[in-house]
Amino acid sequence: MCAIAGVLNLLGESVSPPRLMDMIAAVRHRGPDGTGIHVQGPMGLVHARLSIIDLAGGAQPIHNEDRSIWVILNGEIFNYLELRAELETKGHRFYTRSDTEVLVHLYEEHGRDFIHRLNGQFAIALWDDSARKLLLVRDRIGITPLYYHRSSSELVFGSEIKALLAGGVPARPNLRGIDQVFSWWAPLAPDTVFEDIQELPPGEWLEADQRGVRGGRYWDFDFPEPGDFTVAPESQLAEELRGLLHEAVRIRLRADVPVGAYLSGGLDSSIIACLVHQHADVRLCTFSIGFETEHLDEAPYQQAVVHDLGTRHARIECAGGTIADALADTIWHTEAPVLRTAPAPMRLLSGFARSNGFKVVLTGEGADEVFGGYDLFKEDKVRRFWATRPDSAFRPLLLRRLYPYLDINAQGQSYLQAFFGQGLDAPDSPWFSHLPRWSTTSQCKQFFSEDVSQALASEPPAEERLLQRLPNSFARWHPLNRAQYLESKLLLPGYLLSSQGDRMLMANAVEGRFPYLDHHVINFAAQLPPRLKLRVLTEKYLLKRALQGRLPKPVLSRHKQPYRAPDIAAFVKANPECLELMAPALVRDYGYFDARKVEHLMRKAMTGKAVGHRDNMAFIGILTTQIWHRRFIATPAHKQMLGDSDHVTKETRHVG
Amino acid sequence: MSAEPLVRQFLLNNYLFTDREDALGNDDSLLQKGIVDSTGMMELIAFLEDQFGIRIDDAEMVPENLDSVNNIVAFLNRKQTDRNVQTAG
């Protein structure tokens, strides 16, 4: 990964190079190894490089043979070797060994359709000088970020929002985006928590020239119509899946620097570690997080895999106080409020991997969405079964099977039923699977101030925006596929791959690679019959079957444990400086929340009495909104801290 | 002293985070309105046991006893009566 930024003046006026350099300076943490700029009249591209492939010669921007096409890339094109061989046979001449260079030649061959040939994670800005046209493209899943601001006179874009702010785009809060955080955990692209700053949605492109700006979707998750699922023996499908995963891992090991792996101890990252181990010709290095809270720590499972594969393993211990202290800088990188502290340890982990000499790690992110791993999918199945006989006393008892680790007595059963019983009367709702989660999250909105609640009341409901973005065939899909789609469009790109993924990795200039999110793997899995994902209530059935015998048994058979970090508990003893932002005067001043209610919550939290999910989400959501406002809105752009300042730029290159 | 104001104050301060009395009706369902979740219920039970010196058995942890201010107050009164009967006996 790297950082890109740029400006296209739609009125034909020249772009200022110092402005572009300011923009890239704001995101230099993503690319500390070099800077390159290309300015051509009304258009400027700038790039900060994290060198991973072709260390000596891969500086960007990169151009084609006659310098009529220029490109900057944040990310990786994993199938670049195959594409390059094909392009060379067609007579294209390359001047670097980098993956980026295939883009300009592919564009020459196919125009905008070149996107379909790419296997990778990418945010691309390509300038076609003959057509005087700028093309922005984002990868299919949303691994690599890309933001833009459009005014009547220009299009400004960058890998992170802070690049846009440094380029003069005003920082104003977007209440609709904040409302989405408190509904779905993250804004839904193109919305962000900043007014007039959009995120290019995953799988979409944007084209701009003197005639205007237009966009479109080139890829989406596509599930079969009922009855059209793949028909084949399980053993054959397991074999096919194993082959696809091997290939996804193999091409993700392409790098001119060492590649490591994150190991949570869960099934998904353990499988990746196992596959990397089979491909790598050197001993694999794995990295894990440890928590002092026993029920959050996964050490025994991590150790089982380390022992089994003989990896060189390093573990960073994250005490509650460390997490509390790390939160404020973490929000500088997420650029949005979050409802959990979980991103903070991920930032510490990437710093730890980097200090061990690693710029690239493979992770297990995406398997739950692609192969049906989340408890939410099981809840949906039980709730649908229950909804056909809402008065049944027996059917909701299945809920107990979902949470074997909860001590469910009579009251627990009543409350589980009340929680999961939501929406039983609306099984056709597109959100049926997500109603319990969304309603719990939305309860945090009781803390919104009167002004914010009133302003939001005049907006259309958040679900309406989501409805507009659903594919036409959505309503005909199997319920599991519908739930998978919602997870893959909301939480995955909005939170897991960004706030907990790219941003935390790139805060320390570490690139994450995600084999489960290879689009060949995704397309294969999408066609599988739902029973091969969720077999009765066993999650990721085919994935487990495909890897049977290759992983330690305890890892293969363990009940899924979601990755969690201590939330309020991290703050009770630590009392970090950022808690000052919860003071009534500042809460009133920033205006998002009801100061009196926040006072009650603070009292409850600091006396150790706030233990429920809702209180924890509300506390972290309010605190991180306050931090976010202080860092981005209340502080003028030129005084904002520009991330980590200890990276040294080794090369600055000016082209054109 | 009646249990009602204490129970109301606890629910208002700890689940609705407000001092506004009109935020909670005495017959409002704590479950249906999403005021209390399952962990919140554990907090409520701990509060009732501490505040009123009672012990709540598993079998008593049902919505009929705990799902609204009125249900809770009636439940506390029954517990109190039971205790008085036992003491008298």
Account of the 3D structure:
The complex is a heterodimer of chains A (656) and B (89). Chain A has a 7-stranded mixed sheet with strand order 10-8-9-1-3-2-18. Chain A has a 6-stranded antiparallel sheet with strand order 4-5-6-7-11-12. In chain A, strands 15-14-13-16-17 form a 5-stranded parallel sheet, sandwiched between helices. Chain A has 27 helices and 18 strands. Helices cover 40% and strands 15% of the residues of chain A. In chain A, helix 10 (343-355) packs parallel to helix 20 and helix 26 (595-606) packs across helix 27 (613-633). Chain A is α/β, with parallel strands linked by helices and 656 residues long. Chain B is mainly α and 89 residues long. Chain B has 4 helices and no strands. The model of chain B has no long low-confidence stretch (mean pLDDT 87). The chains are: A alpha/beta (656), B mainly alpha (89). The interface between A and B is medium-sized, with 26 and 23 residues.
List descriptors.
heterodimer; A: 656 residues; alpha/beta; 7-stranded mixed β-sheet; 6-stranded antiparallel β-sheet; 27 helices; 15% strand; globular; B: 89 residues; mainly alpha
**In which order are the strands of the major sheet of chain A placed?**
10-8-9-1-3-2-18
Structural class of chain B: mainly alpha
Most extensive contact = A-B, 26 and 23 residues
Unreliable runs of chain B: none
Q: How is the main sheet of chain B built?
A: none
Determine the number of helices of chain A (DSSP H or I, runs of at least 4 residues): 27
H-E order of chain B:
HHHH
What is the overall pLDDT average of chain B?
A: 87
Radius of gyration of chain A: 24 Å
- The backbone outline of chain B, from C-alpha atoms, is globular
Mean pLDDT of chain A: 91
The strand count of chain B comes to 0
Which bin fits the share of residues in helices of chain A? 25-40%
